[in-house]
Design brief:
Organism: Burkholderia cenocepacia
Protein name: Glycosaminoglycan attachment site
Structural class: alpha+beta
Largest sheet: 8 strands, mixed
């Protein structure tokens, strides 16, 4: 499938798509083609959607590559939901979605500086609050879609249903780690702003608080802890990553001649973050780094944690045997990553973008 030869006029191409067809991105495009190998265009619209809307299609490509990395079998016999996945620990259904910018708010590709003023000042509340609102909106829409149509499909109704969501709702979205999504699903908000203002008060790290809800600009309340609500019991788990971005393509494109550095934050002992700053060629990252799976403790059809168990993949679930919450792999997971590249432009053959 040729996803790089433009199918529409230049003014209809997405800003992110325009940036990746630069001659300097030859090796990166080749890496994405590797991810894409074997991906079917079931409705004949995928290439155009990738070129004009980008993020949602990119997320589907990433998920496809992720499932292949795990060695899962994909059943394409049905048009929807997005993926029918077969693993050695059982089949499950995946619907992909993205959290996008609200009308009138800046889109992620309209970012003016590498890091916004609030995040640079370690005030994460504005970022996380907006993320909570947009993530909750996207999850609610897909849960309603399941209840209205998917649940009646024979290949869906008896299997665990997983929502795979990526946040692209604002500039700086890649710095939210799990703060917003944990609050949305479990009403468990890790207050890094409070910690950064007074670290001596919290020797064990940022405190977890229950907010109950967040308030939109119009005063409407957005409930948090939705996994406690009856209407979400059909959602077995949420698969989430804020690092499944073009930056992952860049750091995995080993043949790239582009120079630069990678600033990353990883989980350390007890989940406390540790930073790294390495030349681009020395930063090591796998496709699954940054993936988190949030299991619904009240799910009608639970997802087996063994399915996604792998080094660096965080899983949050309640262990009924110990009556305790488990946060697997949070001591060696990827929190965030920023790639600063100096692009080397070279001549390339016409076929290089195919």
């Amino acid at each position: 499938m040729d996803i790089f030869s433009p199918l529409v006029a230049d003014d209809q191409l997405h800003a992110n798509f325009k940036s990746i067809i630069s001659p300097s991105m030859h090796a990166e495009r080749a890496e994405l083609v590797r991810w894409l190998d074997g991906f079917p265009d079931r409705d004949g619209k995928f290439v155009k959607e990738f070129q004009t809307t980008f993020n949602s299609s990119f997320w589907e490509i990433y998920l496809f590559a992720l499932f292949n990395t795990y060695g899962f079998e994909l059943d394409w016999a049905h048009a929807s939901p997005d993926f029918h996945v077969k693993s050695q620990f059982g089949d499950f259904i995946v619907e992909a979605t993205t959290a996008n910018a609200a009308v009138g708010k800046p889109a992620e590709w309209e970012k003016k500086v590498p890091i916004g003023e609030a995040v640079a000042a370690k005030d994460f509340w504005p970022l996380n609050k907006e993320a909570m609102i947009r993530l909750a909106n996207a999850i609610r829409a897909k849960a309603q879609k399941y209840a209205q149509s998917y649940v009646r499909l024979d290949h869906v109704k008896t299997r665990p249903f997983v929502l795979a969501i990526a946040p692209f709702e604002q500039p700086d979205f890649q710095y939210q780690y799990d703060r917003a999504i944990r609050a949305v699903l479990y009403d468990d908000y890790v207050d890094e702003t409070a910690y950064c203002k007074n670290p001596d008060r919290f020797p064990d790290g940022p405190p977890s608080v229950k907010l109950g809800f967040v308030e939109k600009e119009n005063g409407a309340e957005v409930p948090l802890g939705i996994f406690n609500a009856e209407e979400y019991r059909d959602v077995s788990a949420v698969l989430f990553s804020c690092t499944a971005t073009w930056g992952k393509v860049e750091v995995m494109a080993q043949a790239s001649q582009n120079l630069g550095f990678v600033a990353a934050t990883w989980g350390g002992p007890g989940g406390k973050p540790r930073g790294s700053m390495l030349p681009r060629g020395q930063h090591s990252e796998t496709l699954e780094d940054g993936v988190q799976v949030f299991h619904n403790p009240n799910a009608i059809r639970p997802l087996d944690p063994q399915i996604f168990r792998r080094p660096g993949v965080v899983q949050h679930y309640f262990d009924e045997h110990t009556s305790a919450w488990i946060h697997e792999e949070r001591d060696r997971c990827l929190h965030s990553r920023m790639v600063n590249s100096m692009r080397i432009i070279r001549d390339e053959p016409e076929s290089a973008v195919s």
